[in-house]
Amino acid sequence: MEFHQFFLPCLAHASYLVGDDGVAAVVDPQRDVEDYLEEASRRGLTITHVIETHLHADFVSGHLELAERTGATIWVSHRAQATFDHQPVGDGDVLQLGQVALEVLETPGHTPEGVCLLIRDDANLDAPHRLLTGDTLFIGDVGRPDLAGGAGFTSEDMAEMLYDTLHSRIATLPDETELYPAHGAGSACGQKMSSELSSTLGEQKRVNWALQPMEKEDFITALTTGLDAPPSYFSRDAAMNREGAPSLESLEAPAPLDLDAFDQKRLEGAVVLDTRPAEEFTKGHVPKALWVGLKGQFASWCGSILPQNKPLLLIARDKEQLEETTLRLARVGIDQIVGTLDGGMEAWREAGKLVSALESVETQSLHQILSRSGEMDVLDVRQSAEHRGGHVPGAAHLPLRELTSRLDEVPPSGSRAVICATGYRSLVACSILLARGDEQVVNVEGGTEGWKEQGFEIEAVKGP
């Protein structure tokens, strides 16, 4: 059996190539498909099938382009209501690739149409089966139940389905079954995922909270309590995947714009996204530009904070960074890029244009400031579970993923420090507040982790 796992760190996304006897299937492909074509060629395989475990919401899939370039058949659940050319499949359907069989198991819970793929290698009967679990079962966690969108199900409905799936379908497989999920830690499709990208069912029965013996009602409560709102772009990407996204080759590269053209589009309402390193952005940037750094979970944060229906202007350090930015935006369906600043920030400065800067403060300095009561507000933009686990005393809380949609809940402050775990997310949030027009905003370098390392007081939230 030919088996290969691909992992895309920016989206914490895993996809798979499975094959035998010269033919192969790709499962849950990312939007850019060259890696699959190259790996299949290297192994002497022809891609004949593309399989989706569900309609992904956190990234745009390359199933349509991969099928068009290889002639492969797309398999997707009959419950998906997909509008592209595909083979609808259901429970018990089997795809035979040489002596390797991929059996479809219907596993609703994360989404109504979710499936897992049980892989058997008939040429090696002693080998344990492998289960591609999609977003149903992660290493250390399970898929969140609130992404069904307009399917007509509540989070509680989906959690009930997931409980039945886990205990009636997956937990009944042999303990030596190897598990391979579609995501790892960092994805917004779950809450407590491990950074490990594979495990066994027996090990997950031992350590995964969702596979522990419990009443269905307790499972539903645990899975639906304390959920942050899903990222705003999820519904858009799920809709794109239901229809099939256009190929990357069909998208035009961002046009280089001179200062006048760039500024005109900016003044007409286009959003400016700056992806240069953090230290360069803080020293000077185009007024009201948003910042998201390429080193972090760039694509998912952009999907969460960028307005969905506004044109986008890019500022990057160089051509290589611009190309990377464009590709990673496309992976989450952000295709409305209308241009980039020709010459970058150097051209902007040389023209004498107004430049904005952002101040930073270290945790020790923040502690000293807060000791003088009332001189600075603190906004914590980590996820709810992080904030509940311990935060700077008195800090207000609003997760970064919800900041743009709930910005009216953050009243302008005389002076505000923004904090996350280490300083990345808080800098994104600072750029949002500055773009709104706030003036006295500072980013906390080192974040809450640095605050803890200094031994300063931590406040926790009691309860679930």
Give a written overview of the molecule.
The structure is a single chain. The chain is α/β, with parallel strands linked by helices and 464 residues long. The chain folds into 3 domains: 2-243, Ribonuclease Z/Hydroxyacylglutathione hydrolase-like (Metallo-beta-lactamase, Chain A), CATH 3.60.15; 251-350, Rhodanese-like domain (Oxidized Rhodanese, domain 1, 3-Layer(aba) Sandwich), CATH 3.40.250; 359-453, Oxidized Rhodanese, domain 1 (3-Layer(aba) Sandwich), CATH 3.40.250. The chain contains 16 helices and 22 strands. The chain has helices at 34-42, 63-70, 155-170, 201-207, 216-224, 234-243, 259-267, 278-283, 298-305, 319-330, 344-350, 363-371, 384-389, 400-403, 424-436, 447-453, and strands at 2-8, 13-20, 23-27, 46-51, 73-77, 87-89, 94-97, 100-106, 115-121, 130-134, 178-181, 199-200, 256-257, 271-274, 290-291, 312-315, 337-341, 359-362, 377-380, 396-397, 416-419, 441-445. The strands form 4 sheets. A 6-stranded mixed sheet has the order 1-2-3-4-5-6, with helices on one face. Helix 3 crosses helix 5. It is globular, with a radius of gyration of 24 Å.
CATH superfamily of the largest domain: Ribonuclease Z/Hydroxyacylglutathione hydrolase-like
- Number of helices in the DSSP assignment: 16
Helix content: 25-40%
- What is the rounded distance between the termini? 45 Å
Shape: globular
Low-confidence stretches: none
Mean pLDDT: 94
Which structural class do the helices and strands define?
alpha/beta
Return the CATH architecture of the largest domain.
4-Layer Sandwich
Total of domains: 3
Number of strands: 22
Sheet with the most strands, sense and barrel status: 6 strands, mixed
Gyration radius (Cα, Å) is: 24 Å
- In the sheet with the most strands, the strands line up as 1-2-3-4-5-6
DSSP strand content: 15-25%
Q: What is the CATH topology classification name of the largest domain?
A: Metallo-beta-lactamase, Chain A
Determine and state the CATH class of the largest domain.
Answer: Alpha Beta
